[in-house]
């Protein structure tokens, strides 16, 4: 059974090295578990979608909730799925430096990443739009 989980969190350490460490760890461990997904990071906020088997996604989300690098972890959306939307990435990353901020404004009151202020479905639509229109790093 495939599932999709979307969550957001705030980064405890916003240094580029800390963010790179999270991505590196994801790209190393996710393929072994059959996890795919995409991560958007900006202004100290993570918006991440993970897809895979129900137990694997649940286990990963549990680890994220207890990960000291994250705080204010919030579940935005969870669903059973027929197919993955982000199957091309063990953990793709939206390249914020190449982002057209009008995409953010399309989904919220201000042109900034703030999944805490919108619904889970809006956050998922934003992430899909970002994946389609922004440069993605880490296709593996």
Form type: globular
Count helical runs.
4
Reading the helices and strands in chain order gives EHEEHEEHHE
How large is the radius of gyration?
A: 14 Å
Low-confidence stretches: none
Number of strands: 6
Mean pLDDT: 87
Could you tell me how far the N terminus lies from the C terminus, measured between alpha carbons in angstroms?
23 Å
Helix proportion range = 25-40%
CATH secondary-structure class: Alpha Beta
Domain BLUF: 2-92
GO molecular function, one term: blue light photoreceptor activity
Organism: Ramlibacter montanisoli
Pfam families: BLUF
Overview of the molecule:
This protein is α+β, with helices and mostly antiparallel strands and 140 residues long. It has a single domain, classed as Alpha-Beta Plaits. Helix content is 37%, strand content 31%. The protein has helices at 16-33, 54-66, 101-107, 120-133; strands at residues 2-11, 36-42, 45-53, 70-81, 92-94, 136-137. The protein has a six-stranded mixed β-sheet with strand order 4-1-3-2-5-6, sandwiched between helices. The radius of gyration is 14 Å and the shape is globular. The two termini are 23 Å apart. The mean pLDDT is 87.
List keywords for this structure.
140 residues, alpha+beta, Alpha-Beta Plaits, 6-stranded mixed sheet, 4 helices, 6 strands, 37% helix, globular, blue light photoreceptor activity, Acylphosphatase-like_dom_sf
